[in-house]
UniProtKB/TrEMBL annotation:
InterPro entries per record: Adhesion_dom_fimbrial_sf, Adhesion_dom_sf, Bact_Fimbrial_Adh_Pro
Species, as recorded: Enterobacter sp. (strain 638)
Keywords annotated in UniProt: Fimbrium, Signal
Family membership noted in the UniProt record: Belongs to the fimbrial protein family.
The protein's name: Fimbrial protein
Residues in the signal sequence: 1-21
GO biological process, one term: cell adhesion involved in single-species biofilm formation
Compartments (UniProt record): Fimbrium
Length: 185
């Protein structure tokens, strides 16, 4: 009986000690977001994609080689605007003071396409090619500066799967994440 009372007493003492020891050291995370705007009207232009996600399904033999002209592109229009100050943002675009640049993980072949980052069941030997939808020119990820069309205040982005140069292609899923930045010229 003395032993069980001693064990219960020690267990209570230890649990109390752990509870007290962790109280003053608990940490928290605060995520801070915001916007800085000044007297420069173009500083607050934003990018508004026509789609937040796009699904591209292609058969293996329909996928073009990396560096080739695209066949069947998905379209995402990237509109640049400031709903609170259209004239200021439009003036910056008309003057050629702002442009767009696309950032993301580059492929491991030529480094020009958006890498396939699917983890569960990835297709290999493929990436997401980025193109000017109208001219079919290749947009190199992390490199090409995209001029904004002054009439529509937008960029038409074409997306298509591409077979990576020098790699074998296998079936699977494809996923990529693209960041669209406004850059000052």
């Amino acid at each position: 009986m003395k032993k069980s009372t001693l064990y219960i007493g020690m267990a209570m003492l230890m649990s109390t000690a752990f509870a007290h020891a962790s109280d003053p050291t608990e940490s928290a995370t605060v995520t801070i977001t915001g916007n800085v705007s000044g007297s420069n009207p173009g500083a607050s232009c934003g990018v508004y994609p026509s789609l937040n996600s796009i699904n591209i399904n292609q058969m293996g033999n329909d996928i073009v080689e990396q560096g080739s002209e695209p066949d069947v592109m998905g379209l995402v229009t990237l509109r640049v605007a400031n709903p609170d100050d259209l004239s200021g943002c439009n003036a910056e675009i008309a003057a050629g003071h702002i442009a767009l640049k696309l950032h993301g993980q580059a492929d491991d072949a030529q480094g020009t396409s958006l890498a396939n980052t699917e983890r569960r069941s990835p297709a290999s030997g493929v990436a997401i090619g980025l193109f000017n939808y109208d001219t079919k020119e290749i947009i190199a990820i992390n490199d090409t500066v995209l001029d904004i069309d002054k009439d529509s205040n937008s960029v038409k982005l074409g997306l298509e799967l591409v077979k990576l140069a020098g790699q074998n292609m296998t079936d699977g899923n494809v996923k990529g994440s693209l960041t669209i930045d406004i850059i000052r010229l």
